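Researcher: Let's do a round of design. I'm pasting the structure tokens now; please hold your answer until I've finished.
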């Protein structure tokens, strides 16, 4: 895959469900071109996986594999998502820019708020903050942050982010986030409505998404399992007095699974978006995947 290829003419409006793609599956000098091709193929979004560091020795169990093994080798390339997506934003016009997922409790909320707001302003309101608690205790230890308090930290960080993005003055006197009254400008275009969506598969994770978020990111689901999760999240939204109008369900699928029927099945199961990605798919498959996606997304069945 040299440079980037124009796959097909741009497809608008986006399909039902919308289709996004991981942006970690090509070489560093191809990332922006790959995102441009995804936009031309009709993908609505690109997503960057994220970790601050990758420990040399990992005893924590990866929650999305039966054997608990890490999903990628220790020498994996890791990028600052906001810098990378800023480069993508400068060369695209409509595709949305997401993280899948940003380890929110590892960062000072002021730093996160500034980075996210800056990208949202420069991109014209295209950012989706995909957030998670993190699963590697060793990563937290390297950063000097208590792994055991990450959920409580997240619960304090989210309202502070929303306040910084919308209110003239923000302050906090939480257990973990203590902030005197401060100004924060400029605001992102959507203010407090800038979407924050949460990953995670446990009941606590689903409830967190329903309580604090604008969506949920699922990992390696089938249409059948998606239908079950959608129903559970719907019940949690109702419990918290929220509707589902501004709540998006995004489910990750393997590139080899993407056909017109699969996309239809996920939509009928309640998914608003599928995200095509695999940390283990070889580089050579991705040009073919984008070309196939471009064809699938032009199907009348998905309009």
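Researcher: That's everything. Go ahead.
Model: Designed sequence:
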């Amino acid at each position: 895959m040299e440079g980037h290829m124009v796959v097909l003419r741009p497809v608008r409006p986006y399909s039902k469900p919308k289709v996004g793609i991981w942006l970690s599956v090509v070489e560093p000098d191809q990332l922006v071109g790959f995102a441009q091709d995804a936009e031309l193929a009709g993908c609505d979004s690109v997503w960057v996986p994220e970790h601050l560091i990758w420990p040399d020795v990992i005893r924590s169990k990866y929650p999305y594999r039966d054997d608990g093994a890490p999903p990628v080798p220790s020498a994996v390339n890791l990028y600052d998502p906001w810098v990378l997506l800023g480069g993508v934003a400068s060369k695209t016009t409509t595709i949305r820019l997401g993280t899948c997922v940003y380890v929110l409790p590892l960062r000072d909320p002021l730093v996160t708020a500034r980075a996210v707001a800056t990208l949202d302003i420069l991109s014209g309101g295209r950012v989706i903050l995909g957030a998670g608690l993190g699963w590697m205790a060793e990563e937290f230890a390297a950063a000097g942050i208590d792994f055991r308090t990450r959920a409580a930290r997240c619960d304090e960080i989210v309202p502070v982010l929303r306040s910084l993005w919308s209110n003239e003055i923000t302050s906090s006197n939480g257990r973990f986030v203590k902030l005197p009254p401060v100004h924060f400008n400029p605001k992102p275009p959507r203010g407090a409505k800038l979407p924050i969506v949460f990953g995670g598969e446990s009941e606590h994770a689903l409830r967190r998404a329903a309580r604090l978020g604008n969506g949920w990111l699922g990992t390696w689901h089938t249409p059948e399992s998606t239908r079950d999760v959608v129903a559970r999240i719907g019940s949690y939204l109702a419990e918290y007095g929220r509707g589902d109008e501004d709540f998006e369900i995004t489910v990750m699928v393997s590139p080899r699974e993407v056909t017109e029927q699969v996309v239809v099945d996920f939509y009928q199961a309640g998914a608003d978006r599928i995200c095509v990605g695999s940390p283990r798919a070889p580089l050579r498959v991705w040009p073919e995947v984008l070309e196939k996606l471009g064809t699938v997304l032009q199907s009348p069945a998905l309009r």
